[in-house]
Design goal:
Length: 424
């Protein structure tokens, strides 16, 4: 029974009490009918309101889901830029718990250099009442930085009054990395072009040193030799010394020019790469040094050596320079003993050339690999100080390392690495 029926029954009872079994007044009947009609309308409106409420709740849940699970970080700020709400992506972007974000100023999460830029963006948003974009940098919970693009808009309440801001944050750190990589790629390309120009100039310089400069040096050395042959002992001791200085200086200059030419040509044979036996390269170097080996009664041994990938001539040069260095800096009272071995360390071979020579002080470990660097006075040991520099440059070009361990009076061990490359 609805409310209109109840009212009708109550009215009838009241009339019976007043008039007994008398007839109900037409005005009362009309009033009751109108009440029933009005009640029906109210029930229809109530059903419509219920449907509207359900639809509103559904829309609200949908909005909450869109807000919380949006792929873009969303932050709701009040008029004072205090964060009142944040979605899941926003929490992940800042790398902090929600409790450490809510009720805190949005500016606190922005790096100091970008805070003024952010303030200007918000000011433009409020003044123009239009969405604004800008790039800022955030401080994440782990103290790293996040470069992001933000889009801001104002929030209007039901009365049409300004009520705060909503900020959408899009991580563009990857874009920045891509831009940086592109910039690095361009700079690398420019550097390669400059290096190619430099290499061309170096080749030209190498040609000049190996041809044009050697010719006058040969002439000087030749005439110095004639002076020594014809006039030694015929003038005085000072003249003999002067002639020796000229002959020795010209000879050293020739060796230095040849060494510089060889040094500048290191790496020009990288196109001739192949798989070859490192032991074959070692044997070739020993053959080239056979005269010195026999002269100094040296005993050279080696373990079995692997097949490696590279330029055989270059690796032969490395072995030859290291063994020649061991022969040069031998002890005068003992025959040189040199042993070549190899060990595998992950993806590379570590070769070693061990001798029983005079040794090297630790403070000179790096210096001996520099071009034209000598640890001893000129004339005490042969050479111009370029053999180890050439060996280092070859190994570095192939992505390896070379170093020395030594003990004065006991001997030295030179190590160098070569990448292991499987045959295709």
């Amino acid at each position: 029974m609805n409310k209109a029926d109840k009212i009708y029954d109550i009215t009838e009872k009241l009339l019976h009490e007043v008039n007994g079994e008398g007839v109900i007044s037409e005005n009362i009947i009309r009033l009751v009918s109108e009440l029933r009609i009005h009640q029906s309308k109210l029930e229809m409106q109530n059903k419509e309101l219920q449907k509207a409420q359900l639809s509103l709740n559904k829309s609200r849940r949908k909005y909450i889901d869109l807000y919380n699970f949006s792929p873009v970080g969303l932050f709701t700020l009040n008029k004072e830029l205090i964060i009142t709400d944040v979605n899941v992506e926003g929490i992940l972007l800042l790398g902090r718990g929600k409790s450490k974000i809510i009720n805190r100023s949005f500016v606190n999460f922005i790096t100091e250099n970008f805070q003024i830029k952010f303030s200007r963006c918000m000011k433009r948003t409020l003044e123009t009442m239009e969405n604004q974009n800008c790039e800022i940098e955030f401080i994440k919970g782990d103290s790293t930085y996040l470069h992001a693009n933000i889009k801001s808009r104002i929030i209007i309440d039901e009365n049409g009054d300004f009520n705060g801001f909503q900020i959408a944050v899009n991580d563009i750190s990857v874009d920045r990395v891509v831009e940086a990589l592109k910039d690095s790629e361009k700079r690398l390309k420019d550097a390669v072009e400059e290096l190619e120009i430099f290499n061309a100039e170096l080749q030209n310089y190498s040609f000049i040193t190996s041809h044009d400069l050697q010719e006058p040096l040969r002439t000087m050395a030749s005439y110095a030799g004639l002076l020594k042959k014809r006039y030694k002992g015929r003038i005085d001791d000072d003249a003999d010394d002067f002639i020796e200085y000229i002959v020795g200086g010209a000879s050293r200059m020739q060796r230095m020019i040849i060494g510089l030419h060889n040094y500048s040509n290191v790496g020009n044979k990288t196109a001739d790469l192949e798989y070859f036996s490192a032991e074959d390269a070692l044997n070739t170097s020993l053959s080239n040094l056979m005269y010195k080996i026999k002269k100094y009664h040296a005993h050279v041994t080696n373990d079995p050596l692997p097949v490696i990938y590279g330029n055989k001539e270059d690796i032969t040069t490395v072995f030859q320079n290291l063994i020649d260095n061991a022969l040069k800096f031998r002890k005068k009272v003992f025959s040189p003993r040199i042993h070549i071995s190899v060990q595998q360390d992950d993806d590379e071979y570590v070769f070693s050339v061990k001798d029983n020579g005079i040794g090297i002080e630790e403070q000179y470990y790096g210096k001996i690999f520099e071009i034209f660097k000598r640890l001893h006075p000129i004339g005490k040991y042969q050479g111009v100080g370029i053999g180890l520099a050439i060996a280092k440059r070859i190994i570095n070009i192939y992505g390896g390392y070379i170093w020395v361990e030594s003990k004065v009076g006991v001997g030295s061990t030179f190590y160098f690495t070569v990448k292991i490359t499987e045959k295709q």
